[in-house]
Amino acid sequence: MEFLKENLWKDEKFEKRINFTCSFNNAKCEFKQGKILNIKGTNINLIEPHKVDVFIKNKKILLIYFDKDNLFLYNRTMPLTIKQLDFLLKYIKNNLL
Fold this sequence. Notes:
The protein has 97 residues and is an alpha+beta fold. It has helices spanning 12-24, 82-95, and strands spanning 3-7, 28-32, 35-39, 45-48, 50-56, 59-65, 71-73. It is 28% helix and 37% strand.
């Protein structure tokens, strides 16, 4: 069984918006490139989303996204917008020790 890997297309403008939101709230973020894994000779594909680790006040928040319209908190059951991310970071910054 042979696996073929290719990078998932990423939106630089969207990553800049996330980065700006994090830096505005004194948070640090690390981006990890998503991948598309293909099993050669089959029609089976696996899409690993882009991941963003956000660090604020000794807390780590995991964001995943596929494109600018699909941002999620931790997993695909909690959709998130940039505005909600900003609110969440402000809440953590102001209300947690």
